[in-house]
Amino acid sequence: MPVTDQGLDQERYLLVPRTLIFLTRGESILLIKGAPSKRLWANLYNGIGGHVESGEDIQSAAFRELAEETGLTPDTLWMCATITIDTGQNPGVILFVFKGECPIGDPISSDEGLLEWIPISHLSNLPLVEDLPILLEHILPMRSDDPSLSVHYSYDESGRMHESFHR
User: Which long-range contacts (CB under 8 A, 24 or more apart) does 137-140 make?
Assistant: First the structure.
C-alpha cells in the first residue's frame, strides 16, 4: 500500500510511541530513580524506557533504550502490554511495555537517574511513579506465553488518572 493510502490525517487522534521496560532478576526488579533535576518523575522510581525514534521498530527501540540507560542486554524480552494514554488532546501516547530477565551484569547509571535492583517485596516502601503500583501488579506475574494486556489510561477533570485493564 502506498503511503498516500495510509489515511493519514492530522485531525484524527494521533499517538506518540514510547517504550517502558521492566527487567527482573530473581525476586528483584530493575528500576530507575529519576534524577532530582528531571522535569518529570524527579526522585520517583520508574521502569526503563523512552521514545521510539523515526525509522525504528518497537522492539529495537526497547533494546536501544535499555542499552542507553542501563548498558544491559537481557536474556529475554517480550512485549507484555500496550497502554493507550488519552491525554485529552492530540496527540496521546501509546506505551509499549516489555518484560524481561537479566540474570547477569551490573547496570550503568546515566544522567537519567540511579539504577537499582529493588526486591519486589520492598516496592510498597518506595516513591513510585503514580501508575507503577497497579501496573506492576499486572505485569510482574506475567510469563512470556501469557496473552498481552491492553490498558487504557485517561484523566478526569481534576487531572486524576484512571486505568482500565483488558486481556
Answer: 138/81, 138/165, 139/22, 139/80, 139/81, 139/97, 139/99, 140/22, 140/24, 140/29
